[in-house]
Amino acid sequence: MSVTVEEVSAVFDTILVLDFGSQYSHLITRRLREFNVYTEMLPCTQKISELSWKPKGIILSGGPYSVYEEGSPHVDHAIFDLGVPILGICYGMQELAWINGKGVARGEKREYGPATLDVQDQSCPLFKDVDHSQVWMSHGDKLSALPTGFTTVATSDNSPFAAIAHKTEKIYGIQFHPEVTHTAKGNLLLRNFAVDICKANQNWTMANFIDTEISRIRTLVGPTAEVIGAVSGGVDSTVAAKLLSIAIGERFHAIYVDNGVMRKNETETVHKTLTEGLGINLTVVDASEEFLGKLKGVTDPEKKRKIIGNTFIEVFERQAALIQPKSGEEIEFLLQGTLYPDVIESISFKGPSHTIKTHHNVGGLLDDMKLKLIEPLRELFKDEVRALGEIMEIPHDLVWRHPFPGPGLAIRVLGEVTPAQVKIAREADFIFIEEIKKAGLYREISQAFAALLPVKSVGVMGDQRTYEQVIALRAIETTDFMTADWFVFEASFLKRVASRIVNEVDGVARVTYDITSKPPATVEWE
Ligand SMILES: Nc1ncnc2c1ncn2[C@@H]1O[C@H](COP(=O)(O)OP(=O)(O)OP(=O)(O)O)[C@@H](O)[C@H]1O
Ligand SMILES: O=c1[nH]c(=O)c2[nH+]cn([C@@H]3O[C@H](COP(=O)(O)O)[C@@H](O)[C@H]3O)c2[nH]1
Ligand SMILES: NC(=O)CC[C@H](N)C(=O)O
Ligand SMILES: [Mg+2]
C-alpha cells in the first residue's frame, strides 16, 4: 500500500526561486524565510508542468552566464501561464528582457559594487519605502532597451534600467542584488514582493512546521512500521531523532556509536541527555577497540576517514540486525539528518561543487540495506534546525553545540591515531572549550578545537628539559563553513589556555594558535 504524503511546499504558501547558478541564490531563499515566508529553490531548468504544487510567486536568480550566448540557461516559459508574480534579479531580469524583445548586450564596462537607487515610479509596490537607498551591483551585461510591455521604475548612475516593471502584469526586474547585505533595503524589497505583491502567508515558523512534520512522519511510517537512525549527539541528528521519537515513540531506534575518537565525556553525556532528558530510545555501542584497532599504523587522512566510515557502517548494520521490531516485521525506514544546504548542493544547476575532503555520513548504508529514507530536516537551514530544537526543549548546550566531524579526534590527531595520542588531544580540547565557555565566547565562535601535531619540541619545566609534542588551537567564525576567519581572542585568554594545557596535559610542551583563514587553510588540520 502506498500513501501520499504532502510536501512542505504544498502545505505552506511557497515562493519558488529558480536558480541560474549565482553564488547568492541560496541567500534569496534564506532572506525570505527570515520573514517567515516559506521559499524553495529549484534549478532554472525546472519544468513547471512537473511541479506538484503551485508557487505563490517566482524569483529568477542571478547567474554567471550571458542570456545572448549559445548554450546559456533559459527558463520554462510556462512560468508566465501560472498567473503569479515574477521577479527577475540580475541575470533573471536579463532573462525577462531576452524573452520580451532580446534587448540585452555586453556593457562597456562591468559594474561591481555599490550604487544609489533613484526610484522614478513611486507607485510601484516593489519599491515601497526603498527609494534613494544603496544597492549592490554585480554585472557585465545590461539591458540595451526596454522589453516590450515594460516601463522603467528605477535608475542608478550606471544603470538606466536598474529596475523595470511590466505595465499590466505583476512582473518585475532588478539589475542589483537585494539578497546581499550591501543592499541596504534589500530585505524590505524582497518582503514587498513576497508579502504585498505575491500575498504569501508569513506562517513559516518552526512552531507551525513541527506539527505538520510530525503528522507527515506518522502518515509516512504508518501505524506499525519501525525506524532506525544513527545519532551522534550533534544538533542535526538529535533534533531529527527527537522528532521521530515524538511522532512514533519506541518504534524509533536510535544508535550511537562510540568510535574511540569522541571528545571527553561525550558518550556518557550523549547517553544521559538523549535517554533521560529527551526520552529517545537509544542504544550505545562501544566499538572503540574495533575502530582504534583498524586505525593502527594509519597516517593518511583520507585513509582514516575511509576506515572510520566503513567501520561505522559495519557496526551500525550489525547493531540494526539485532533489533527485533514488535510487529514481527523487518525495520522499514532509516532516518537521515539531511539539511537543506545538502539538498541545494545536490540539485544545484552548476552541479555539486568540487569535493576537497570526502565528508562521510551514513549515506553508504542505503544500497544494500534496502531501507526507505526519512529526512525530516531536508527543508531546513541549520539556524531553523536550532530554532526547532529550542521549541522541542532540547537543552541549549546541545542545540548550540559546535559541529563535530564524524571521524572525530582521529583527524585532529595528526599522524598515527593511538589511544595515548587521542588522550592528549582529548584533554587539550576539553580545556580549550571549557575556557571558551567560561569566557562567554562559545556562541560567538562557530567551531573550536585542539589538534595534536606529530612533532616534538623542546621545553623546560621545573628546571628539567622536556621534549614533547605541540598542540595547535583552532577557532573560527563562519556562516557556511565554506569560508572562515580565525577568531580574535584577547592575548590574556590565549595565555591562560596555553598555560593550563602545558601544565595539565602530560605530553605537551608547546601550544600554538592557528591564524589561517579558509581558504587557503581548511577548518580541520587533516
Ligand atoms: N558517533 C556516531 N554515532 C552515530 N551516528 C553518527 C556518529 N557520528 C556521526 N553519525 C551519523 O552521521 C551523521 C553526520 O554527522 P554530522 O557530524 O555531519 O552531523 P551531526 O553530528 O548530526 O550534527 P553536527 O553537524 O552538528 O555535528 C549524523 O547525523 C549521524 O547520523
Ligand atoms: O562529518 C564530517 N566528516 C569529515 O570527514 C569532516 N571533515 C571536516 N568536517 C567538518 O566540515 C567543516 C568544514 O571543514 P573543512 O574546512 O576542514 O573541510 C568543519 O565543520 C569540519 O569539522 C567534517 N565533517
Ligand atoms: N550577477 C549576475 O546575475 C550577472 C548576470 C550576467 N552574467 C552579467 O554579467 O550581467
Ligand atoms: Mg557531528
TrEMBL record:
<keyword id="KW-0436">Ligase</keyword>
<comment type="function">
    <text>Catalyzes the conversion of xanthine monophosphate (XMP) to GMP in the presence of glutamine and ATP through an adenyl-XMP intermediate.</text>
</comment>
<dbReference type="GO" id="GO:0005524">
    <property type="term" value="F:ATP binding"/>
</dbReference>
<dbReference type="InterPro" id="IPR004739">
    <property type="entry name" value="GMP_synth_GATase"/>
</dbReference>
<dbReference type="Pfam" id="PF00958">
    <property type="entry name" value="GMP_synt_C"/>
</dbReference>
<keyword id="KW-0315">Glutamine amidotransferase</keyword>
<feature type="domain" description="GMPS ATP-PPase">
    <location>
        <begin position="204"/>
        <end position="401"/>
    </location>
</feature>
<comment type="pathway">
    <text>Purine metabolism; GMP biosynthesis; GMP from XMP (L-Gln route): step 1/1.</text>
</comment>
<dbReference type="GO" id="GO:0005829">
    <property type="term" value="C:cytosol"/>
</dbReference>
<keyword id="KW-0658">Purine biosynthesis</keyword>
<dbReference type="InterPro" id="IPR017926">
    <property type="entry name" value="GATASE"/>
</dbReference>
<dbReference type="GO" id="GO:0003921">
    <property type="term" value="F:GMP synthase activity"/>
</dbReference>
<keyword id="KW-0067">ATP-binding</keyword>
<comment type="subunit">
    <text>Homodimer.</text>
</comment>
<dbReference type="InterPro" id="IPR022310">
    <property type="entry name" value="NAD/GMP_synthase"/>
</dbReference>
<dbReference type="Pfam" id="PF02540">
    <property type="entry name" value="NAD_synthase"/>
</dbReference>
<dbReference type="InterPro" id="IPR014729">
    <property type="entry name" value="Rossmann-like_a/b/a_fold"/>
</dbReference>
<keyword id="KW-0547">Nucleotide-binding</keyword>
<dbReference type="Pfam" id="PF00117">
    <property type="entry name" value="GATase"/>
</dbReference>
<dbReference type="InterPro" id="IPR025777">
    <property type="entry name" value="GMPS_ATP_PPase_dom"/>
</dbReference>
<dbReference type="InterPro" id="IPR001674">
    <property type="entry name" value="GMP_synth_C"/>
</dbReference>
<protein>
    <recommendedName>
        <fullName>GMP synthase [glutamine-hydrolyzing]</fullName>
        <ecNumber>6.3.5.2</ecNumber>
    </recommendedName>
</protein>
<feature type="binding site">
    <location>
        <begin position="232"/>
        <end position="238"/>
    </location>
    <ligand>
        <name>ATP</name>
    </ligand>
</feature>
<keyword id="KW-0332">GMP biosynthesis</keyword>
<dbReference type="InterPro" id="IPR029062">
    <property type="entry name" value="Class_I_gatase-like"/>
</dbReference>
<dbReference type="InterPro" id="IPR022955">
    <property type="entry name" value="GMP_synthase"/>
</dbReference>
